[in-house]
Write a structure and sequence with these properties.
By secondary structure, the chain is α+β, with helices and mostly antiparallel strands. It has helices at 11-14, 33-36, 56-66, 82-91, 99-104, 108-117, 128-133, 163-176, 218-224, 237-249, 282-290, 294-303, 343-346, 385-398; strands at 2-6, 26-31, 46-49, 73-76, 125-127, 144-148, 158-160, 184-188, 194-202, 205-215, 228-233, 255-264, 267-274, 321-326, 339-340, 351-356, 376-381, 400-403, 406-408. Strand 2 (26-31), helix 2 (33-36) and strand 3 form a beta-alpha-beta unit.
């Protein structure tokens, strides 16, 4: 089989060799130089560097017109290039998810409409173009969220105290050319903890699932540089049924998924879903709890199409792992000058992994949760989720990045 991979996520985050036999298949990695540089030097493959001046779809299309060849699969495991891969599959008649299917799980308005049609609760929302033209039609009065309809990592997400404040901010951005009206939506703010549901599905059958809850918020991590954590919870039949209904609504039938919901009491309120693995240490902690390496099985599903259930590990699911990440992008171009308050946690028996940047390393310019990029990341586990959560809460409240003799909040 001849496989083209739009390569954007650093190789170590996916470990493609665990899901694709590179000796059996001809595998081509197509990506920017930094991504190509992450390929293991001993990996049997072909690497093609793209300039990065245009989209992956545009540059791959130009390359394939210049060097015609036939691929049996075109794959992307990056949130940002799922649509590019779908466009290439349609343009070059390659099997796999089409543009309509991928758009449904990339466009937050479309996905909420689909989930709502299934009778599941979603925040009240509207496209920005409607909001700008008719702000008086908004059906809620409280805090209002502005967000890109196809964004990730909470980039460009803002929370305003009222719809009017959100409208004034949006109108100003539209007038100055900072935002494109068709790229954004607004929705009501719902207060509550955010859970993420991660797992694997094949032919519409849910094969594996773990529910987790954030400690802190992705928005605070992105916008303010606040640390973030997550703890795995027990998953009951009711949550599993809710996840199955959401996946059916948005037509996710193959591969990994990362689904987020706001908990209003015991009721999940759909937030968003991606047909991809979660970020940070979701993949690692999922494997620790289940024995299942999500990217590997997703790649098997996308390439071979054979049932993977017989190959899933038979170990008992043992949730309770947690991960944490400390941001550095809000301090760029500063360097990492160590931590304050970290010693009791660094030596804790609960620590499974602890990754700290070398002293003097440049802090990242971009939002990242990755070990060896973020100043501090790690994995922890206690005997139960409540203890893991309490440990994470204490860590996030106590530890800070050092700047001279002071901690940076």
């Amino acid at each position: 089989m001849n496989i083209l991979i739009l390569h954007r996520v650093p190789y170590a985050r996916i470990e493609y060799h665990r899901g694709i036999d590179h000796n059996l298949h001809q595998v081509t990695y197509f990506g920017k130089q930094a991504a190509i540089d992450s390929l293991p030097p001993t990996l049997r493959c072909r690497a093609v560097v793209r300039a990065g001046a245009a989209s992956a779809f545009e540059e791959a299309s130009a390359w394939l017109r210049q060097c015609p060849q036939r691929f049996d699969r075109i794959i992307s495991l990056s949130e940002y290039e799922l649509l590019d891969a779908a466009q290439l599959r349609e343009a070059f008649a390659v099997a796999g998810p089409c543009v309509r299917e991928v758009t449904l799980v990339r466009h937050k308005v479309h996905m909420k409409e689909a989930v709502a049609r299934q009778g599941l609760r979603v925040p009240r929302f509207m496209p920005m173009v409607t909001f700008i033209d008719r702000p008086q039609s908004i059906p809620w009065a409280g805090r209002t969220v502005i967000k890109p309809h196809s964004g990730a990592s909470s980039v460009d997400v803002e929370i305003h105290p009222t719809p009017l404040a959100a409208w004034e901010r949006a109108a100003l951005q539209m007038a100055s050319g900072g935002w494109a009206v068709n790229d954004f939506q607004v929705e009501e703010y719902i207060d509550g903890p955010v859970r993420h549901f991660d797992g694997l599905v094949q032919d519409g059958q849910l094969l594996a699932l773990i529910a987790s809850e954030y400690v802190g918020t992705c928005l605070a991590y992105m916008a303010q540089g606040a640390p973030l954590g997550s703890v795995q919870l027990d998953t009951d039949a009711r949550q599993r049924q809710w996840v199955e209904r959401v996946l059916s609504a948005v037509e996710i039938t193959q591969g990994a998924f990362h689904l987020e919901a706001i908990m209003d009491g015991h009721e999940p309120v759909f937030l968003e879903v991606g047909n991809r693995v979660g970020g940070a240490d979701v993949v690692t902690t999922f494997e620790m709890a289940t024995g299942i390496h999500l990217p590997s099985f997703e790649l098997r599903i996308l390439t071979d199409g054979q049932p993977v259930q017989p190959w899933l590990p038979k170990q008992a699911v043992t949730p309770g792992f947690g991960w944490f990440a400390f941001a550095g992008h809000t301090l760029h171009p500063a360097t990492f000058n160590g931590l304050v308050g970290a010693e009791p946690f660094r030596s804790s028996e609960a620590i499974v992994q602890w990754h700290e940047l070398p002293y003097g390393s440049a802090l990242p310019a971009h939002v990242t949760y990755s070990a060896h990029e973020a100043p501090l990341t790690g994995i922890v586990r206690h005997s139960d989720a409540a203890k893991t959560r309490a440990w994470l809460q204490q860590l996030l409240a106590t530890v800070g990045l050092a700047k001279g003799n002071a901690a940076v909040a």
